[in-house]
Design goal:
The protein is α+β, with helices and mostly antiparallel strands. Helix content is 43%, strand content 29%. The protein contains 6 helices and 14 strands.
Length: 369
């Protein structure tokens, strides 16, 4: 009887220990699951879906965005100009300085002749008055004054003709805006002659905006790059050009119209340099501007992380043939009339790192036996 009681007590003890072990194991499993859930909430997670370019989708909730300093950006369609590819040449300021010197000499000669003509005319008028009043001026002296007046007037006319010729030459070489400023010795022409700003002559391509055509005006601005766009990496820094005027001559090589632009001195330009230029054409509807900070470069292409579903993002390639004046690129609206396209505007590098970290982990898992 005593042996049977001890046996029952032992079975009860074993059952109690087993129950306690189960409770502890369940606690540890749940505790680890909570820790994993907390850690998972702090980083993006790969999803099974694929994006429009076949790239893996990343699940991204609000907690992960806050933890990784990721900001979303809704791209709203807005009319944007089509950028027309062209080429420009940085002009040597020495030629402008030489024209300025010719103009200064012509102005000085004209001013001197004007002063002499004024003095001669005043002397002739005074001698006429004295001769009429019979006050010690002979007819011979009056005739000499008249001849001097006519000679001075003729000299003035010649100097004015010289100045007009220089003005016409300046306008034919430098356009209807800069030419007169050179002749007048204006501050803008002096800055250009001293090389404080650069002049860039841009050839307008056949599909561009012809200057002087009825109803068409040259673009008031353009973008220049020290190197043409390359598919192997980020675009070269762009320099904003401001229009001076059309030039009344054509590019001798391409036989296309020329536009004259000004560029800042501290821009990396040098006299004689050829630059790639983007001219704004007619606006196009339903275009989106992707800011530069949202763009990732990989394998020679530009990418953004686009929202393909609420909380899910996938890497998508974008075109880079339309640079934006504000930085970044202009792309076509993939779904005109639909909701604004949402992309990762800040923190795209975190998603890029997570995408390829996940691919490495998957590759390691595939190789396990």
């Amino acid at each position: 009887m005593r042996r049977r009681g001890r046996r029952a007590w032992g079975l009860a003890l074993v059952a109690a220990l087993a129950l306690a072990g189960g409770v502890i194991a369940l606690y540890l499993v749940n505790h680890d699951a909570d820790d994993d859930a907390t850690a998972a909430a702090a980083k993006p997670a790969r999803a099974a879906a694929l994006g429009p370019d076949g790239t893996p989708a990343i699940a991204l909730d609000e907690a992960a965005r806050a933890q990784n300093d990721i900001a979303l950006l809704a791209l709203k369609p807005a009319p944007r100009p089509v950028m027309i590819a062209a080429f420009g040449a940085v002009l040597d300021p020495a030629a402008l300085a030489e024209m300025g010197q010719k103009a200064a000499e012509a102005r000085a000669a004209r001013d001197e002749a004007e002063a002499r003509a004024g003095a001669a005319a005043a002397e002739y008028r005074r001698d006429q008055t004295l001769f009429r009043d019979q006050r010690n001026v002979s007819a011979q002296a009056l005739e000499a004054a008249a001849a001097n007046d006519r000679a001075a007037a003729a000299t003035l006319a010649g100097r004015e003709a010289d100045l007009r010729a220089v003005s016409a030459l300046a306008a034919s070489q430098w356009g209807a805006v800069l030419g007169p400023d050179i002749v007048a010795g204006g501050a803008f022409a002096l800055r250009l002659a001293r090389g404080e700003e650069w002049l860039v002559a841009v050839g307008v391509p056949q599909n561009g905006v012809p200057p002087g055509e009825a109803g068409m005006t040259p673009p008031a601005w353009a973008l220049a790059a020290l190197a043409p766009p390359s598919p192997a990496g980020p675009a070269a820094p762009q320099i904003e050009l401001r229009l001076i005027s059309a030039l009344p001559r054509v590019d001798p090589r391409a036989q296309t119209p020329l536009l004259l632009y000004a560029a800042p001195r501290a821009s990396g330009l040098l006299a004689g340099m050829n630059v790639a230029v983007s001219l704004p054409g007619a606006p196009r509807p339903a275009a989106l501007r992707v800011p530069a900070e949202a763009v990732l470069w990989w394998q020679g292409r530009a990418w953004v992380y686009r929202q393909i579903a609420p909380g899910r993002f996938a890497r998508a390639a974008i075109a880079t043939d339309q640079p934006s004046p504000e930085g970044g690129f202009i792309i076509a609206d993939p779904e005109p009339g639909a909701a604004p396209m949402t992309i990762v505007g800040r923190g795209a590098a975190a998603l890029f790192s997570e995408e390829f970290r996940g691919q490495i982990q998957l590759g390691e898992g595939d190789g396990d036996p």
